[in-house]
Amino acid sequence: TDRYCVFGNPIKHSKSPLIHGEFARQTQQPMTYTAVLAPEDGFTDAWRAFVAGGGRGANVTVPFKGDAFALCDTLSYRAKRAQAVNTLIVGGNGRTYGDTTDGIGLVRDLAYHRVPLAGKRVLVLGAGGAVRGILEPLLAEKPSEVVVANRTVAKAEQLAEAFVDLGRIYGGGFASVKGPFDVVINGTSASLSGELPPLPETLFGEGAWAYDMMYGAEPTVFLQWAGPRGAKLLDGLGMLVEQAAESFFAWRNVRPETASVRTLLRQSLN
Ligand code: ATR
């Protein structure tokens, strides 16, 4: 039985053990997957101890994605772009390989819901670590343009600059945002505190989608705002399941089916 886990702080409410437990059951993989609380200043030691005890790989969540990035011997292209790692893999030679599956998780969730990206105008709200993690996979879908809008304007500008070699991407403040967009993705942590970035009324084009990378039992404030303005709504639950499926595939070379796990996870929120 191979051992996997998710490291975070806090970690109690993580849904990853539920998701990976279900993937393992469904694909009959001989593995365990647990949640591990690492001390804020002790991630690297926690990872080393896990590997010494036979651990084969792990997911990494807040606040350790940067620490995980720093300790890897080898990194995927998308992890280098994201400057973050959410998936650790112990290689045959004992070296640590790092990947990030958050961005591809978002793109796969959008595909699952038949949300087109190619040739579309996409607005991304926020310019923190969560947004940095999605830009490479997003630009790989060839949208006509990606606009990154952030409260701290300089951060949006710097982020756009860092990805400009991959496509048409612009950074700015909320005030300068000009709709209509086909897809608007909320990657700010404002939802956590029930806040909403100051957005213009005319953000959504005909048939547009509003996507919140957060999720919960109730729609986020961003989705509550977007619904009456005509957007079709998606929260980040599917992204969580799809990023997990990508990590699972990286470890086990088996692709789990996500539909039933989406249902299970949605039920677990109530
Ligand atoms: P994460 O890992 O979730 O991306 P982060 O790197 O701290 O966390 O980034 C948080 C993002 O949410 C930032 O874009 C932040 O805006 P600033 O760069 O201006 O700080 C944004 N954010 C947080 N609270 C917000 C609020 N109340 N209104 C608008 N944006 C907010």
TrEMBL record:
Gene3D superfamilies (UniProt xref): Leucine Dehydrogenase, chain A, domain 1, NAD(P)-binding Rossmann-like Domain
Quaternary state and interactors: Homodimer.
Pfam families per UniProt: SDH_C, Shikimate_DH, Shikimate_dh_N
Molecular function via GO: shikimate 3-dehydrogenase (NADP+) activity
Role according to the record: Involved in the biosynthesis of the chorismate, which leads to the biosynthesis of aromatic amino acids. Catalyzes the reversible NADPH linked reduction of 3-dehydroshikimate (DHSA) to yield shikimate (SA).
Listed EC numbers: 1.1.1.25
Residues engaged in binding NADP(+): 126-130, 150-155, 213, 236
Family: Belongs to the shikimate dehydrogenase family.
Name of the protein in its database record: Shikimate dehydrogenase (NADP(+))
UniProt: shikimate binding residues: 14-16, 61, 86, 102, 215, 243
Record keywords, A-Z: Amino-acid biosynthesis, Aromatic amino acid biosynthesis, NADP, Oxidoreductase
Biological or metabolic pathway of the protein: Metabolic intermediate biosynthesis; chorismate biosynthesis; chorismate from D-erythrose 4-phosphate and phosphoenolpyruvate: step 4/7
Catalytic activity: shikimate + NADP(+) = 3-dehydroshikimate + NADPH + H(+)
Positions of the Quinate/shikimate 5-dehydrogenase/glutamyl-tRNA reductase domain: 110-164
Domain SDH C-terminal residue range list: 236-265
InterPro entries given in the database record: Aminoacid_DH-like_N_sf, NAD(P)-bd_dom_sf, SDH_C, Shikimate_DH, Shikimate_DH-bd_N, Shikimate_DH_fam, Shikm_DH/Glu-tRNA_Rdtase
Domain Shikimate dehydrogenase substrate binding N-terminal: 6-88
Active site: 65
